[in-house]
# Entry
Amino acid sequence: MRAGVADGERQGQLIYYVIPRELGDEYYEEFRKRFADIEDVEVVVDRRQGERRTRGDYGGKRVLRDRRRRRSPGTFPDV
# Structure
């Protein structure tokens, strides 16, 4: 048990230790061995090759809406 963490308190949580792609070959095995005894830590190498949002094929479909309740139509008497 880790200091300050009770049994079951972190149940279902996983910590990912992400290594940049450029350093993966050099550090992956070292960190995998270092965290092998800790069951809720997983070492991964970042496989992304670029920014997904730079492509223009995703946009233009978002609709912004006013989420406030609409007023009833018509007029109301002065109070």
